[in-house]
């Protein structure tokens, strides 16, 4: 440190000095800048209990123009006194003198002079004492001589009130250390929102801008019926395996199912109907009753569409949801047992695959994704199905950004929806676009209790349609 | 574009190290796709369209199917017609006895006559069976396949079930005979076979197939006999599929024979076999059923959003292995669904094939004219509003898991798990997923524990759902939206958390005091709190949660070292 030697000298001087040192005096003595001494004091303080320091402020005073005149010529009252000859002076004449008005009243209150109002040619002023001590002049001369501290606070303030003295800051003639504008400011104390949930807010906003109504999804526990069977997902489907889905031990089974609808679903699976061959297997109610942690929010969409189907006549609907889903999967850098699913659904007469692609284009444009490609895919409950890819400039490749399709008639017709109503739907995870957006490689750095709060503190606003910034560098590892 | 041949496909796939192109799981498929993205565009489109589809097309699980699919798609060849033929001599017979009813009741069979294997074909044949086992056969639980050298056997065959101790044979690739009991023990350490043992383990009778001389063909779904093992030189193959799902067994048999009958002396001809069920009824397999569907061309146009002539649509479908022609009034298309397309069960499947052949990316995009007014879900709306003001109050938002261990929500908070009303998961892979959380507090405390190096104080909050059992709900459980906040510092800071409660109530427009639906806090106790430092929060005439200074035992169990105060309320009464 630059003030190292100063600190050393300071300590040496302190060791011999009695009653401490004045930093300004020491600076003058050593011939260094006062700031250098202050810096040395501060760095010594930072080390702990090595020195004690107290802040002393000194004030400087200087005379006003009037004050300087008084220091030179004497106070107005003294000048008044001196201008009165032994035989006295007419008051009217006295008042015409430069110091007359001010000096007269002050001299009167000092009892230096008196007025004889009975004189023949008007009031006349006489001396009362032989000589006077011009205390004001003396004090001002002291200040002028740089000895303002010899005056009491009361005396100084009296002079200041008479506008003879002004206090001057030391800044006028002091040098100032330049600011380092490259240094960081002090961040304000504040709370912060979680980056993933900031992204969630933006997705909600996009859906709301597009006129989609939010579905209730506050039911993590779902029956296999709503999670799978209602979606025409057969009971032997691998997703219904213990290896992929969290089933419940308690409460193990759903207590109520809409039995009329259940029978229609059962028939469609086991025998077909609604123009379908069905899966031709022995559909079991016990299997449908099994409770689980929902594996997708499509179960909530199924409930919403079922409710919609009960409303007659049919009214077109646009729905969305963003909430947690659960998979009993092997965990790795990009997979956790729970994640957020985003889902959009449109139900209306005569919707086409072209409509699905059109809605997807608008949706992804709002996310700042404009280059889209659609690939055939396989989903058990949509037909046709398409995966959505977008070209990622950073990764220089096409990445999957979502999955979509038209719900199968075997799912919709048993609900009671009219035959010419199509339902298009798409889904994506909330975590994946967020990780790509913020350049996060390990999902545990984003979700769960192991996240680094510094990352949360440092995370920027979520502006999905704005150009991505450079990867974050701040924050501790 | 190179010639689409078996050799070409294999070379390309091998070269690019994605030989497991035809995988069991989606993530591997994506690997394959990323590879195909690097091919030239034209080629890519045609390959992709088919490769994508293969997820559900079991016939694309082997190179034979993929090559044939590509060739038909590019109109190089016409889709072959698969035929079942009755042999000149005696038909092979498989008789099912009634003992199988309780363990594995269904069986189907067929014969590939005068087949010519090569090393590649043989490997592909074995691989296809393995893939089918993993995929549609659901790890052999639904269907198990056995293929045998027919020339080493003599029919008729019997499919029966016997006590394990009574079954004794020389299994595949073993040199001596074992009883079924011994085999089950031996295979416990076999990395491949151990996964299938549970299907029949502990059953009194095991399924087994014999020939007329008592030779064991197989003990499904575990192992075949060594006697009838097929080799590259095998000329006549007897195929049996046993299972618990009759439909799937028939599909699996169809897939195998359609793929490999190509190598028979009379290509695509499959020799029939007769299966006699315990009730005396007899069926001929393979089914190789062709089904006809009639779909209107305008329906396809309407569902896809295109305007193609019926003739063009028929052409598109034919390229997708669905031989189609325009009939009737000129708007109807008759589609023949071959046995290889078991996935086509509804007109919507045909619509998809037309769209795939047309090319998704060639479809004109349009916006639906659906007019709707958007509404937020009220609970989420309130949550969003509160989140912002919690942050404005200086608290930082955490996002923790909804699943956790029993210990987190009970033991560590000084509670017994039975007192929590928690829902329990039956098949957690680790203790982290034993229960759904009943409180947000453990997640926040674990977040602090992972961030002990951060400067104090730590002020965290989370607004999210917890789950408890509730028999009034259809599934017997429900969520509650909770708000939880913690203050962690060198001092307990009860006044900070208390002040936060006051602020939350201010935000929710709930006045202090018991009157007019206001709120008060009343001395209470809770296992998680320091005695005398816990209060219950009453608002709108009901208890909505607790606040207080956490018990030192709780602090310690969450691996923390400083005092901490917390607040947790249910926000649903404020909707």
UniProtKB/TrEMBL annotation, chain A:
Source species, domain of life: Eukaryota
InterPro entries membership: aa-tRNA-synth_II, aa-tRNA-synth_II/BPL/LPL, Phe-tRNA-synth_IIc_asu, Phenylalanyl-tRNA_Synthase, PheRS_DBD1, PheRS_DBD2, PheRS_DBD3, WH_DNA-bd_sf
Enzyme Commission number: 6.1.1.20
Subcellular locations according to the entry: Cytoplasm
Keywords: Aminoacyl-tRNA synthetase, ATP-binding, Cytoplasm, Ligase, Magnesium, Metal-binding, Nucleotide-binding, Protein biosynthesis
Chief site of localization: cytoplasm
Similarity section: Belongs to the class-II aminoacyl-tRNA synthetase family. Phe-tRNA synthetase alpha subunit type 2 subfamily.
Protein name, entry field: Phenylalanine--tRNA ligase alpha subunit
The species this protein was found in: Felis catus (Cat)
Gene: FARSA
Automatic annotation (TrEMBL), chain B:
Record EC number: 6.1.1.20
Compartments in which it is found: Cytoplasm
One Pfam family named in its UniProt record: B3_4
Name used for this protein in its record: phenylalanine--tRNA ligase
UniProt family annotation: Belongs to the phenylalanyl-tRNA synthetase beta subunit family. Type 2 subfamily.
Family annotation (PROSITE patterns): B5 (PS51483)
CDD domains the record matches: PheRS_beta_core
Keyword Aminoacyl-tRNA synthetase part of the UniProt annotation: yes
Cofactor field: Mg(2+)
Tagged with keyword NAD: no
Domain B5: 288-365
Coiled-coil spans in chain: none
InterPro entries per record: aa-tRNA-synth_II/BPL/LPL (IPR045864), B3/B4_tRNA-bd (IPR005146), DNA-bd_dom_put_sf (IPR009061), Phe-tRNA-ligase_IIc_bsu (IPR045060), Phe-tRNA-synth_IIc_bsu_arc_euk (IPR004531), Phe-tRNA_synthase-like_B3/B4 (IPR020825), PheRS_beta_core (IPR041616), tRNA_synthase_B5-dom (IPR005147)
Keywords: Aminoacyl-tRNA synthetase, ATP-binding, Cytoplasm, Ligase, Magnesium, Metal-binding, Nucleotide-binding, Protein biosynthesis
